[in-house]
């Protein structure tokens, strides 16, 4: 019974976690397509990694199935002759943030830990929306209950207050034991057994450290600021609870430099509440709002007219069908009388 309850709790947590679709709209280049696939890897496991994109699909198609699949965010890549853009949308009703990708590099090749830097201290609306959008795109982590073995990757988002750009980095987390001699550490952590055929005893293994090689920056040579005392056992070799280990971040990509261009109130079509390139007066904003409301009213009027036309045609068809049935019955009756 306890196992059943645990499974139900886990399933409930998975359902409540933020899920995403990462798609493209229109034609994009080969490198941009690879960037889209790399971002899907970043968003794993709470994304559709093998989602097939059909040319006939529209945004409404993804929104219609999002609720059934518990999808909360939509990431859309587009490309023009001048730049690549990334739209991040909160489903089902927005808002939508449009970023211009100024620079990017592809991944060389695990849910990630999100680290945000520089997003505080500014009360601007667009910065609050950016913070909320990125933070809610990934599952929250309870530091008191988290299993350290489940944290294998981290995403760093650094916002530069001066140039208003965001640096996006994706790292793998490596944990290695410290406080051991180089030879012992290599014996403990190495996946390959070294060639010990020429040695006569274990003492020679300890003495002859030349049998082993070590990468720069590992073990005791790392800065003490990167050393921690583990509160849990780690599955990697040599890392044990209450023992010191070193933390290393290895960049695995993709890497992006983002600039917020536009914020829309709805889902890729609502009122523009922020634009980095276009500034409008209050009168212009009011006129645009009135024009949009008029367009919405016209759309609703057309929809009601279409529904009325459909009802009228259905009623006419039903009347004609009843008339045809009555006529057939009269013809059958006359034939029997004859």
Automatic annotation (TrEMBL):
Annotated Basic residues bias: 293-303, 312-324
Protein name listed in UniProt: Brix domain-containing protein
Domain of life of the native organism: Eukaryota
GO aspect biological process, one term: rRNA processing
GO cellular component, one term: preribosome, large subunit precursor
Residue numbers spanned by region Disordered: 293-338
GO terms, molecular function: rRNA binding
Alphabetized InterPro entries for the sequence: Brix (IPR007109), PPAN-like (IPR045112)
Compositionally biased tracts (Basic and acidic residues): 328-338
Leader peptide range in chain numbering: none
Domain Brix: 18-269
Organism the protein comes from: Dinothrombium tinctorium
């Amino acid at each position: 019974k306890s196992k059943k309850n645990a499974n139900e709790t886990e399933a409930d947590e998975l359902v409540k976690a933020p899920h995403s679709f990462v798609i493209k709209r229109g034609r994009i280049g080969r490198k941009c397509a690879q960037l889209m696939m790399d971002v899907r890897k970043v968003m794993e496991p709470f994304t559709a990694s093998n989602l097939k994109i059909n040319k006939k699909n529209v945004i409404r198609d993804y929104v219609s199935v999002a609720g059934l699949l518990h999808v909360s965010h939509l990431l859309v890549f587009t490309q023009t002759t001048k730049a690549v853009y990334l739209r991040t949308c909160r489903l089902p009703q927005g808002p939508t943030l449009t970023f211009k990708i100024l620079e990017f590099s592809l991944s060389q090749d695990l849910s990630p830990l999100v680290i945000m830097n520089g997003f505080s201290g500014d009360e601007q609306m667009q910065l609050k929306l950016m913070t909320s959008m990125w933070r809610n795109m990934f599952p929250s982590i309870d530091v008191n209950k988290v299993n350290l073995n489940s944290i294998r990757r981290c995403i760093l988002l650094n916002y530069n207050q001066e140039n208003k750009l965001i640096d996006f980095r994706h790292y793998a987390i490596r944990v290695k034991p410290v406080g051991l001699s180089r030879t012992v550490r290599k014996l403990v952590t190495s996946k390959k057994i070294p060639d010990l055929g020429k040695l006569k005893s274990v003492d020679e293994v300890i003495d002859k450290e030349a049998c082993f090689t070590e990468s720069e920056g590992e073990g005791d040579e790392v800065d003490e600021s990167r050393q921690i005392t583990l509160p849990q056992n780690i599955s990697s070799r040599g890392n044990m609870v209450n023992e010191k280990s070193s933390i290393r971040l290895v960049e695995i990509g993709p890497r992006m430099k983002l600039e917020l261009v536009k914020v829309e109130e709805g889902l890729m079509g609502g009122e523009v509440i922020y634009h980095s390139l276009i500034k409008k007066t209050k009168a212009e904003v009011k006129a645009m709002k009135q024009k949009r409301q008029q367009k919405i009213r016209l759309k609703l009027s057309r929809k009601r007219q279409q529904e009325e036309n459909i009802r009228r045609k259905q009623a006419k068809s039903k009347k004609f069908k009843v008339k045809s049935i009555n006529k057939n019955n009269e013809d059958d009756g006359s034939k029997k009388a004859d």
